[in-house]
């Protein structure tokens, strides 16, 4: 039993099927509804999750400091419910282009459609790259898991 537990504990994942969508000059008006950019996602066969990231430049369109909030959103089935990541927020000062990188957010869902949802306190233009990458079990992890399961079966037969 300990072998199987060890195999599960060290199981890792590998990324594959990287999809990067480049967008430029996306105008985000202020307001409670926000603005959404949607993208198709083609998951890799056998995917066990999805990694999301955003790297962008933000240009304010007025002379005040505002906060930009962005979430990653995904839909697992056509017409299904939309799910959302925690907020990623950045302060944007007037007359400065601000570079912003969210880092990677990992989800165990495998969507068919993804989106970026922006909310701002003042008008801004956003340009950047949005990555949504299928996560696959690493081949070595699968082998370790199989060998661990085999060891458990051998041990059970001896008892």
Task: Tell me what you see in this structure.
- It is a single chain.
- The relative contact order is 0.34.
- This protein has a single domain, classed as Jelly Rolls.
- It is elongated.
- It has 2 helices and 10 strands, in the order H-E-E-E-E-E-E-E-E-E-E-H.
- With 159 residues, the chain is α+β, with helices and mostly antiparallel strands.
Tell me the layout of helices and strands.
Blueprint: H1 2-10, E1 13-28, E2 35-40, E3 49-60, E4 66-75, E5 82-84, E6 88-92, E7 98-101, E8 105-107, E9 113-120, E10 124-137, H2 139-158
Antiparallel strand pairs: 1-10, 2-9, 3-7, 3-8, 3-10, 4-5, 4-6, 4-9
Helix pairs in contact: 1-2
Note the overall shape: elongated
Structural class per helix/strand content? Answer: alpha+beta
Major sheet: 5 strands, antiparallel
Low-confidence stretches: 1-12
CATH topology name, in short, is Jelly Rolls
Q: How many domain modules?
A: 1
What is the H/E string?
Answer: HEEEEEEEEEEH
CATH hierarchy: architecture: Sandwich
Number of E strands: 10
In DSSP terms (H or I, runs of 4 or more residues), the helix count works out at 2
What is the multimeric organization of the chains shown? single chain
Distance between the termini: 13 Å
**How much strand?**
over 45%
Determine the fraction of residues in helical runs and give it as a percent range: 10-25%
Could you tell me the radius of gyration in angstroms? 21 Å
CATH class: Mainly Beta
- Overall mean pLDDT score? 85
